[in-house]
Design a protein that fits this description.
Number of helices: 30
Number of strands: 20
Shape: globular
Strand content: 15-25%
Radius of gyration: 30 Å
Largest sheet: 6 strands, mixed
Distance between the termini: 56 Å
Length: 735
């Protein structure tokens, strides 16, 4: 770099720093500015020799993260300083956590320590490295929630500046973001950041889909603006008459949520009707907030017919994220459904800033602090360190995105639970001991099974007994992470006791068969009975499912093992040779893997049934070799996030020699001769082999399933397009 370039860069760094101070949501005192300046100077020094992949000076990254923390999230000076310092200890050996503590105090040091990346983890093919990272990151929630919030800001800036990275790295980071960071942002109440993380995640995991929706939204922007204007015009006169101080805004739905709706409902972009919401934000003192919200609700519903099933009152019962608002769906101009969100300025700030605004208004609001309550609840779920890392993260995620229901205890206390929760979840939410001793439950005075799904407004009473204890069926009934982790811990403790007894029984029985119980014989038994661990083996002996007869069969097979081994050795080459020949001609020319475009043995995943033309990737499983998944498979994000090192790029290179099975779902108005039209189109026009067909009709509306064999995706798409044109058919989609 020339002197001129260095001078320009330094000026840009100074400008970015000044901007950071200017945009802070909190009012910064002289001491705050001094702390931030000191952190900035240390960060500049620590990163002076570093550059990002894009070529710019590394210091721009911590400044950008600090800016997100200050402006978007609205945290305090301690958090801003911590954000500036978040990579210092990891990237520069001259600085330690002790140095940070001496310079900036215990709070900043604790946050920076929590933010310092984990680098000394053992890589093991059976345990996901990334899930282990997530587990350790989530454990920091108990120490200081600001660690997680700054981590989310760090991830947001990394996602915003990912263009210069390799494509496989982009997919891995984007998948992690959709898998854990976006749900975390949602749970902490950072809705704007959650939306941006989801959209950016989609941009890199499904770029073509993202681009297509983004372009269509841009095209329809003018029409949306005009619609919001016409909607506002109708109610403005009435709102002004009441002397309300308000503003009406239109909020487009995120690209990610439109995509999710298209997939969930099996509709095209044009068929998604609620692509935006109308937001009415009003000024009010705290005492009159609720009264004014319902007044505005009344005015809106005077002019537009409401959908009574779509009223959401989060003012009387705020979400556990702290979110408050009234949501109503009304029939707006041109008979279109429109979601209207009614919020005070305070509610709007909490919705946009989450944690920070929640604390700004905390003194005015005497209600229990939901964020603190949630973190305290997590304490127990996070304590269970015995769980497999991936299972742990999956359990934790259960509660992140879940919608909420509100139920009452017998005394009339209101409890918030995730949608789909059961009486068992309610029992564990009261206290672990209540959950452990649950014998039954009453909902609204009637006895119900423990698997009963609770609804908002239910009154739930838990019946307990000293003799009751968890059994394995409870895992089918419990949905919350807390309940499941407690049940698993209890079952594991029981299993260990039975396994210890089983080990001694096995030792005695093997002795009678003249076999010594040692590591070698235990491994043979585990393989023979197709089990995963020695604990499984001892447990099964303890409960009697592996009895004398089975152990005698094992001893007999063991004595013949040598003969079998010789036979297999002689037989194998011939079999595999024939198999290889058959496989190579029919399958191996279809898919290639990795940068070298290698031909490998693979299986098609049942969860998404890819066919030629679908965008796919390979996933190396432990027992089944290479499995091929579609890029938009429901499991793709979890696999790419947790097991990135087992993912292999894959692409179709030829599909002329093989046919693939696919299922088509249809629905529409039942017409005479409709089935005949469909079968004629498939068999005559398309030359597609139809394997099975089934139709059901109910009061003039039909649904149907057709299983067809096609050579590639193009042929399937053509078939679906032609089926859509048949008179009476409403929807056609690939299962």
């Amino acid at each position: 770099m020339t002197d001129v370039d260095i001078e320009k860069e330094n000026a840009a760094i100074a400008k970015a720093y000044k901007e950071l101070l200017k945009v802070s949501y909190q009012t910064l005192s002289k001491e705050d500015k001094k702390l931030i300046r000191q952190a900035f100077d240390v960060a500049v020094d620590a990163h002076k020799d570093q550059r990002r992949k894009s070529g710019e000076a590394y210091i721009f990254h911590p400044i950008a993260v600090a800016k997100i923390v200050a402006q978007e999230i609205g945290l305090d000076a301690t958090s801003i300083a911590s954000a500036l310092l978040h990579d210092v200890v990891e990237d520069n050996p001259n600085y330690t956590i002790d140095d940070i503590e001496q310079l900036f105090g215990e709070a900043v040091a604790r946050i920076v320590d929590g933010l310092t990346k984990i680098s000394s983890l053992k890589k093991d093919m059976d345990v996901s490295l990334q899930a282990e990272n997530f587990r350790k990151m989530l454990l920091t929630l108990n120490e200081d929630v600001r660690v997680i919030i700054i981590k989310i800001a760090d991830r947001l800036h990394n996602m915003q500046t990912m263009d210069s990275m390799r494509a496989d790295k982009q997919v891995k980071i984007a998948s992690e973001t959709l898998y854990i960071y976006a749900p975390l942002a949602h749970r902490i109440g950072l809705y704007n950041i959650k939306t941006e993380l989801e959209d950016l995640g989609l941009k890199y995991t499904e770029p073509e889909v993202y681009q297509d929706i983004a372009e269509k939204m841009q095209e329809s922007k003018e029409e949306q603006d005009a619609y919001i204007k016409s909607f506002s015009k109708v109610i403005e006169k009435s709102l002004n008459k009441e002397g309300l101080n308000y503003e009406i805004k239109g909020r487009p739905k995120s690209i990610f949520s439109i995509r999710r709706k298209m997939v969930k409902q099996g509709v095209s972009f044009d068929e998604v009707y609620d692509k935006f919401a109308v937001r009415i934000i009003y000024k009010s003192d705290f005492e009159n907030e609720k009264f004014l919200a319902w007044k505005i609700y009344s005015i809106v519903t005077d002019h537009f017919t409401p959908n009574p099933t779509r009223l959401r009152d989060w003012i009387s019962s705020p979400k556990s994220t702290g979110y408050e608002a009234l949501h109503i769906t009304v029939v707006g101009p041109k008979s279109r459904f429109v979601e209207v969100q009614i919020r005070s300025e305070r509610m709007n700030e909490i919705a946009e800033k989450g944690y920070a605004a929640h604390y700004k208004y905390k003194n005015q609001n005497v209600k229990e602090d939901n964020l603190d309550l949630w973190i305290n609840k997590l304490q127990e779920a996070l304590e269970n360190n015995e769980a497999d890392a991936v299972d742990f993260v999956e359990q934790f995620k259960l509660n992140l995105y879940s919608k909420e229901i509100f139920v009452f205890s017998p005394k009339g206390d209101l409890k918030s639970l995730p949608k789909g929760a059961t009486p068992l979840d309610f029992a564990f939410s009261i206290h672990t001991e209540v959950g452990m001793k649950t014998r039954g439950a009453k909902v609204n005075g009637k006895l119900v099974p423990l698997s009963h799904k609770l609804q908002s407004g239910d009154r739930v009473e838990i019946l307990t007994s000293e003799n009751a204890k968890p059994n394995s069926n409870w895992l089918d009934y419990a949905t919350t992470a807390r309940a499941r982790s407690k049940i698993k811990s209890a079952l594991k403790a029981d299993t260990k006791i039975i396994a210890e007894e089983g080990k001694e029984i096995l030792r005695r029985k093997l002795k009678q068969l003249k076999i010594t119980l040692n590591e070698s014989s235990v491994n043979e038994l585990v393989n023979y009975f197709k089990l995963s661990t020695s604990l499984d083996l001892f447990y099964r002996v303890g409960i009697g499912t592996i009895d004398n007869t089975k152990l005698k069969a094992f001893a007999s097979s063991r004595s013949n093992a040598f003969v079998s081994y010789i036979k297999n050795k002689i037989r194998k080459p011939e079999v595999s040779k024939d198999l290889d020949k058959e496989e190579i001609t029919s399958k191996y020319d279809m898919l290639v893997f990795g940068q070298e475009e290698e031909k490998l043995n693979y299986k098609l995943a049942n969860c998404c049934n890819p066919i030629p033309g679908d965008k796919v990737f390979g996933f190396l499983t432990i027992n089944d070799g290479m499995k091929v998944h579609k890029k938009n498979c429901p499991n793709a994000v979890s696999l790419q996030s947790n097991y990135a090192y087992r993912i292999m790029p894959a692409k179709w290179i030829d599909s002329s020699q093989q046919v693939y099975t696919s299922q088509i779902n249809l629905s529409g108005i039942d017409n005479l001769g409709l089935v005949n039209d469909i079968t004629t189109l498939i068999s005559e026009n398309m030359h597609v082999n139809m394997k099975s067909i089934s139709f059901t009709s109910d009061d003039g509306v039909f649904t149907g399933k057709i299983t067809v064999q096609v050579k590639n995706q193009t042929m399937l798409k053509k078939l679906i397009d032609r089926l859509k044109k048949i008179n009476g058919i409403d929807k056609v989609s690939r299962a």
